[in-house]
């Protein structure tokens, strides 16, 4: 996407290993809405990034540390999170919650919060989820959504909206036109409200 002066910056974190998967498709519609509203959007595919699990070393709590002590691909992601005005988290449901790729990234945000709580305060958030079972509760989507709700309430961020839907095969979610419209509207809302 082209750089726009004085536009809101949106960072999209994609937790699916499929670049054309259903949660990614939902995120793309959010991006289209944000782009149409004048935002500058950057997308990061978490799959393939070198993101280690949190070591529970609490190095991020030491006064002389300003970040996580693990030197991996989360370091540049931290900077992008800080610089963005809004974040989009998109993930498929894997085994009753978000994907491992997304969970690794979220767990590592512990260090960012410990060193820069202002990075989260008032941040605008959009969530996109896809799942195979027709029921969001049986599939585990409700578990993932609740995790996002609890986490962002704790850190003082504002979930602007959530879009989620059932689709089994890659790209199948495109056939749900009302959901596609809802996702695009969420992208505009993320920028304008």
Can you put this structure into words, describing what you see?
There is one protein chain. The protein has a single domain, classed as 3-Layer(aba) Sandwich (Rossmann fold), CATH 3.40.50.360. The chain is 39% helix and 21% strand. The protein has helices at 22-36, 74-83, 100-115, 136-139, 141-155, 177-192, and strands at residues 9-14, 40-45, 86-94, 97-98, 124-131, 158-166. Strands 1, 2, 3, 4, 5 and 6 form a six-stranded mixed sheet that branches. Helix 1 (22-36) packs across helix 6. The longest helix has 16 residues, at 100-115. The two termini are 22 Å apart.
What labels describe this entry?
single chain, 193 residues, alpha/beta, Rossmann fold, six-stranded mixed sheet, 6 strands, globular
Mean pLDDT: 94
Global outline = globular
**Could you name the CATH homologous superfamily?**
Flavodoxin domain
Report the count of strand segments: 6
What gap, in angstroms, lies between the N and C termini? Answer: 22 Å
The helix tally amounts to 6
Rg over CA atoms, rounded to whole Å, is: 16 Å
Short characterization:
The chain is of the alpha/beta class and 193 residues long. It contains six helices and six strands, in the order βαβαββαβααβα.
């Amino acid at each position: 996407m082209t750089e726009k002066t004085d536009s809101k910056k949106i960072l999209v974190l994609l937790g699916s290993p499929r670049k054309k998967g259903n949660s990614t498709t939902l995120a793309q519609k959010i991006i289209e809405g944000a782009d149409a509203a004048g935002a500058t959007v950057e997308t990061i595919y978490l799959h393939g990034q070198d993101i280690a699990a949190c070591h529970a070393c609490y190095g991020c709590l030491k006064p002389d540390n300003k970040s996580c002590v693990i030197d991996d691909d989360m370091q540049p992601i931290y900077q992008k999170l800080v610089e963005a005005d809004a974040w989009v988290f998109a993930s498929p449901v894997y085994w009753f919650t978000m994907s491992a790729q997304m969970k690794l990234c979220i767990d590592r945000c512990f260090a960012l919060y410990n060193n820069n709580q202002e990075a989260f305060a008032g941040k605008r958030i959009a969530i996109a989820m896809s799942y195979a079972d027709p029921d969001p509760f049986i599939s585990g989507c409700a578990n993932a959504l609740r995790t996002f709700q609890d986490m962002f309430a704790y850190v003082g961020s504002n979930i602007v909206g959530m879009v989620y839907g059932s689709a089994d095969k890659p790209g199948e979610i495109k056939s749900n036109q009302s959901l596609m419209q809802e996702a695009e509207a969420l992208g505009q809302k993320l920028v304008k409200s």
